[in-house]
Amino acid sequence: MKLILTEEQQFLKDTALSFAREKTPVKHFRELRDSENEQCWDNSIWQEMVNLGWSGILVPEAFGGSDFGVAGISVIMQELGKTLTPSPLLATAVLGVSTINMLGSEEQKNNYLPKIVSGEVTTALAIDEGNHHNPLEIEVTAKLDGESWVLNGNKVFVMDGSSANTILIVARTSGKSGEVNGLSVFLADKNATGLNISKIFTADSRNYANIEISELKLGQESLLGEKDAAGEVIQKVLDIGRIVISAEMLGNTEEAFEVTVNYLKERKQFGVAIGSFQALQHRAAEMFCEIELTKSAVIAAMHAADENSNELERLSSLAKFQAGETLHLVSNEAIQMHGGIGVTDEYDIGFYLKRARVAEQIFGTSEYHQSRYADISGF
Amino acid sequence: MESLESFRQEVREWLEENCPPTMRTPLVPEEEVWGGRNAKYINPESKLWLDRMGKKGWTAPELPTEYGGGGLNRDQTKVLHQELFRIKARPALNSFGIWMLAPCIIEFGNEEQKREHLPKIIKGEIRWCQGYSEPGSGSDLASLSTKAEDMGDHYLVNGQKVWTSYADQADWIFALVRTGPKEPKHNGISFLLIDMASDGVSTKPITLISGKSPFCETFFDSVKAPKENLVGIENSGWTIAKKLLQHERNFISNFGLAGGGTGSGADVVNIAKKYLGEKNGHIAHPVHRENITLHKMKEHAFGLTLQRSSDEGGKASAASSMFKYYGTEHNKDRYELMISAMGNKGLGWAGEGFSDEEQAITKAWLRTKANSIEGGTSEVQLNVISRRVLELPN
What's the pTM value of the predicted model, to 2 decimals? Predict the structure, then answer.
């Protein structure tokens, strides 16, 4: 496994870079936030992404996608992360596609994947139930009642939960909370009776929802694949999600760092650029080192996902940990090094801090992944 | 790719035939090979292994064959290393000549110097040491004051170097000397090769906080060095000096990886399980376990970064500063974690109360403190990153 990009991946990255700079500079995100847009992303921008084929990067060619792999979507998310571009890519094109593709029957794939590629279907994966990510502690239940499944329970912090038209619900069909066996995934229309979706307003001004599930009745065709058999696949979907969001976080980090270093060169105090002060130089150099380590962890993890490596879990945890720690550091230092303007809303750098803390929580914090890494490694 | 596979086959067969049996056993420190005129070989197979590898040029696989090198490309070298690793072969030769000097002679030396010095370096016939730091010139290396006066056919060298590793065993020294005392400090330095057997050269070992060390002080008292031993142009030695430091940093940066650099080779996880005990197969103490996990994750990411840099073609020169900084700080951290996990067993200095391994770890811990000083301090590396990579103003 070489830790470099293929020509194809480099091309996708370059395309995404131009897209982000031209179509979705940070101004785009600021306008969305100020407009209090309900879904927190822009329909016409999403359509352009669809036209570029980004919604189908993880979709097999047989269902209309390009099958460019986790590395392909990761480098796109990295570039979009630089300008904080909101879109349904992660929730739909990564989580939705991976879940349906790995778990669904041919018929289900046929029903959903081409419509995801065309932008018609957007998805949200409803998994977390508590204050912290804990993908095995699932208490939402699904019970068979005659010919229908009946679901009950609560989901929280569901990414794109208030914009997606299709909700993928992870539910327990057998076993106890904490067990990997006995989990199943159900597909539900967002307007289904028994689903009560409430948008929550988070610091990063993106789209999340809490979902109350009460006597939600679903037909047999709503069960994705086989009953009780989704546990392992969900872990893999989450690992892919972790890698892709790590790439996005790397993009957030790179941009926040670049903006900050430029500010150090421009801002004058005591008659000189503040970047000439060693107290700031060394902190900047340390951030540089951590960013380099993050790039390596992310690229290794995305290639591992595409090569089906048995190191996937460890590398995914390493990537999410390292991306989280580095973004945490850089988002804090960026504010401090900007001084007074760093804490004003008028200046963009604060957006990176707000996005950082939310992204750090998604699919497990650094603490979660440190603990997981230790367990996998046998420490 | 096919030719690379046939090369692998060729290497494998050659090693099978030529790597002596004891050279495939774990290295014992007394049998480490550094070559040179004064080398003693406790194990005759060490000498045999050196001679065979040296003749093949594989002690310096990427140097050109016309000067005795292996003439391999990057991928072939990788294959060679993989095959050496596979049979657990000991290094045939440790050499500052190969790690630091040879690449600079290739880049800056004249044809005669290449023909004179490179083959002897590669075969391990001449052992080199590095004359850079001086008592008054550490991080501010360019302020060095060892002077070399132009006496027509030779330079007359007077002054003192410090931290010259293995100076007491080396045959030659590559030294930075001041040839232009009136020039601005960076513009009056030359890169000079000096035979340690010359009249007026003397050395004195330095004892470190960790005990005996290879470091020496080296004194030059009216030493004559022939003019042909000047590498590059007079007063332009700083360029060579910096280039050589990059090679040195690249070499030192491996310290960040378990088993690399100065240390006892002990694994921090195994040590922790041994001295703190295990609970369900885990390091029993949760805080130690947490600290060690952080360390190992950073190590993993650092190792991937070294790999990425090599996959990218190893082009970024400033990367050497990052690797030197991160690798050495990480190595220090490793030994702090190790002695902490060992409790009072990590504090042994001598005698029966502590095993050899325990004492080795204590001393290795003390030795690592020099890692972030030698070859340019961590602070100097951070300066290099902020100035050269981030282009922050002076």
Answer: 0.90
